[in-house]
Amino acid sequence: MEEENKISFFKRVKMAIFNLENYKIFVNERFSKAVKYIFSLIAIVTIILSISTTVSFRQKFDKLVSYIENDFPDFTYENEQLTVAETVDAYDEEFDAKLIVNTGDLTDEQIDAYKEEAKESYYSVILLKDKAIYTVRGYEYQATYSDFFNTLGIGSFSKAEVFENYFNSDGMLKITCVMFIYAIIYLFVSNILVIIEDILIIAIFGWICSKICKVALDFVSNCKLAAYSVTLSLILSTIYSIVNTFTNFQIKYFSLMYMIIAYIYIIAAIMIIKSDPNRRVGQEVPVKDEKKDDAIEVEKVDEKKDKDTDEEKKEKNQAAEEKNKKEKKKSKEKNKKELEGDSLPDGE
To answer: How far apart are CA 62 and CA 125, in angstroms?
Structure first.
């Protein structure tokens, strides 16, 4: 347990990307550790994406405010309906944005024609008499003026009043803060739903692979591996989203590449676990140092030589002692015989 607590979040990120040989640490941890890790990663990604989204929104919104102030015709809002003096059909090439304004009485066919025209642009806004239609990359959102302005407690306004009361410095700051909070809530919830779905799919794939490879990993263990396997994919996806937000740069089949990277990681982790199933929990794989290994081998050889020399000396000493004992024994026997010879009577 102490080993688990020593691994910080950013060290886990580094291990998840660069140290697949240590994935067994994650497998043997509690499931709550993996949950905490993935939620922390999602929170950081959400904050980064919210900042980039808000900055991009503010850039576009500032340009829109400037356009409304200088080029947009007079308008009024009263009795839950918007009235604009002229019909507008404008396009901004820099942001690939389309603005269509027609507050007259329109048929459903005319509104559908406006929608089709708007879908050709990356961003589009259609302002009608009673509602606004906002499109991003072909995804359509609608909102009635009454629902929006009644929530804010606004009953009527004119173009001059908008710039005097809302599009001043304080109003722009409030709009930016509201956009940032909305982005955090929306992105956090959507990221959780999408990433958890991806983790479950990757875990099922990992469970199948572990069965094929005959590695004893249950579904929960594969969920832990999957939570760390998506790390690099999630970081690359964040970078791609930021670039896409500011440049509209797109990579075809990026979502497929996102999943393939995660699949590769979990397969590699399973194969490494299979190759070293008895490693102690929390034990990191040592990096081989050839110089150090050579020094250790030399030291072992020297120790063996010293040991052999000591044994040889010991054997020689034992042999010398035994030789001395034998010589002493012979000497005693000889002296005894001489004494016995001297004690015999003459003539015998």
So the answer is: 15
